[in-house]
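Q: Sequence in, structure out?
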Amino acid sequence: MPSTTRDHLSEADTTSYLETMHRLADVSADVIRRYDHHRIPVVRKTDDSPVTAADREAETAMRDVIMDRHPDHGILGEEFGTHQEDATLRWVLDPIDGTKSFISGTPLFGTLIALCADGEPLLGCINMPRLQQRFVGDGHSTTRNGAPVRMRTGRGIRDATVLVTDHVDVWKHRNGQAFDRLAAAAGIFRSWGDCYGYTLLVSGYADIMTDPLLNPWDMHALIPIVRGAGGMITSWEGDDPLSSNSLVAAHPALHARVIAMLNPPR
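A: Exactly. Output:
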C-alpha cells in the first residue's frame, strides 16, 4: 500500500503543512496574475521547453515561504533545482505547469505543489489562477475549493473520455499505435492535458488521463490528488508512478484494461 499522510504526519502537522500549501498557492498566483494577459519574453531551456519570468518569480516566492516557515525542509523546483536534498520532508514545485498554455493566452495552466516524506507524495495541490480552482488531495480525499470531488464510475472504454497532454510525445516515447487504438475505442478523445486534465479526471468529467513523458515536479502533486478522488495512478506500464517518467490515471475499474491496451504483447 502507498504511504499516506495518516502514516507519516500528525493531525497538527498535516494542518500546518496544508496551511503552508495554501499560502504557496496564494503567493504563486499573485505573481502569475501580474504577468497574465501580457506578452512576456519566453526563453528556451536546454530541453527546448519554454520558461518565463513568471515561472521563475513564482517559484522564488514559494521557496521564500518554505524557507521561512519550514527551514529544515527540502525543496525541489523546476526552475531552481534542489535545496537540502537529504531532508526527510521535501516540497516539490512546478510554478507553471502548462507554460505553453500560459504563453499562448490559454487558461488551462496551473501551479503544482507537493509535500513528500522520504520521497513519497503525501499532500498535493493543483492551483489554477485563471480558473479560480484549487484542488488539494491527501490520498484519502480530494477537494476543489474546499468541496469534496470524486471520479465518476460505471463507464467502459467505449463510453470513456480519454485525455493526453502531448500526442506527439506518445509517438516519440511510447507505443503510438497502441495509444491511438485506445483513443479510437473511447467515446471522446481530447488533448486537454497538463494539470488541467487531472482536474477534469478527479471532478468526474473525464475517465482516463495519460502523460507519456514527465519530470518529478510534474508528477508528485498529482498522485495524492488522484488517489484521494478514488482513482488509480501508475506509470505507463502499470507500475509505481515514482519509478517512471510517465503517468496513466483512471478509475480502478478501468485502469487495468487501459494499461493492457497501451502495452499490447509484442
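The chain has two domains: 5-148, 157-262.
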